[in-house]
């Protein structure tokens, strides 16, 4: 387990603390999984409290949701840390920097809800800490899954260990007229449901990766109050891959 310091930027960088480890969104009713099987998973924390998930995309960068680190485009949360290399939330964390998508807008249903965190020191790859990739092709027949730390809605207690659930995705063309007629959904805002009806994605899992094998399909963005009746919205990654690579290149030094 490794701890790191983070900072972030919209058009500039601000120093804040981080861990190489809005409201929290979480998974409830999933299965406990090992970090060895999900070595890209991280916990984003404020004062050692889990608020969001994220995914390692290189030894220097973590991908998450913009809504995890800012309430408004020009207002950033302080004392943010990232915990990596463990499925246990009781471990210690690290520091970083970040870049929020310049067109992120929480007032238009959190469109472009994506951010890149730059770690203040590089990660050391191991069986517990590896990067997730981006898919070349995507098929609707593939099995998608979501990992994160879950809050039991009955006890309001956070799970200590990393959880996983299988999910089914819905394209914006189907999701928008069926579930969100009164809201604007952009083409990169896709929807998903847990495949098991008793499972829930509850507050704390924003920023967690939607995975197809070892590839990131999306990042959890917004979660309805009733996630069993209405689908969760996630940011579909494919339109942002060039942006991600550009930010990595720009801030690699």
UniProtKB/TrEMBL annotation:
InterPro entries: Peptidase_S1, Peptidase_S1_PA, Peptidase_S1_PA_chymotrypsin, Peptidase_S1A, Trypsin_dom. Keywords: Disulfide bond, Hydrolase, Protease, Serine protease, Signal. Residues 1-21 form the signal peptide. Pfam families: Trypsin. GO terms for molecular function: serine-type endopeptidase activity. One of its GO terms (biological process) is proteolysis. It comes from the Eukaryota. Residues 27-249 form the Peptidase S1 domain. Belongs to the peptidase S1 family. PANTHER family: FI18310P1-RELATED (PTHR24276:SF98), POLYSERASE-RELATED (PTHR24276). This is Peptidase S1 domain-containing protein. The lineage of its organism: Eukaryota, Metazoa, Ecdysozoa, Arthropoda, Hexapoda.
């Amino acid at each position: 387990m490794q701890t790191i310091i983070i900072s972030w930027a919209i058009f500039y960088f601000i120093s804040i603390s981080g861990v190489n480890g809005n409201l929290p969104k979480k998974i409830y009713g999933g299965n406990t999984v090992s970090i060895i099987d999900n070595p890209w998973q991280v916990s984003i924390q404020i004062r050692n409290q889990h608020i969001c998930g994220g995914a390692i995309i290189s030894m220097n960068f973590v991908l998450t949701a913009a809504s995890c680190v800012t309430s408004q485009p020009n207002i950033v949360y302080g004392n943010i840390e990232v915990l990596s290399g463990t499925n246990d939330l009781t471990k210690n964390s690290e520091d970083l920097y970040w870049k929020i998508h310049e067109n992120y807008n929480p007032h238009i249903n959190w469109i472009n809800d994506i951010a890149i965190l730059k770690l203040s020191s590089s990660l050391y790859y191991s069986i517990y800490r590896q990067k997730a990739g981006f898919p070349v092709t995507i098929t609707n027949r593939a099995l998608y899954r979501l990992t994160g730390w879950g809050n039991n809605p009955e006890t309001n207690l956070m799970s200590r260990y990393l959880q996983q659930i299988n999910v089914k995705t819905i394209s914006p063309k189907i999701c928008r007229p069926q579930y969100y007629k009164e809201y604007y959904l952009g083409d990169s805002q896709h929807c998903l449901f847990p495949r098991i009806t008793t499972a829930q994605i509850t507050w704390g899992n924003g920023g967690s990766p939607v995975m197809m094998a070892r590839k990131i399909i999306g990042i959890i963005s917004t979660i309805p109050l009733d996630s069993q009746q209405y689908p969760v919205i996630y940011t579909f990654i494919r339109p942002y891959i060039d942006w991600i690579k550009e930010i990595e290149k720009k801030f690699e030094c």
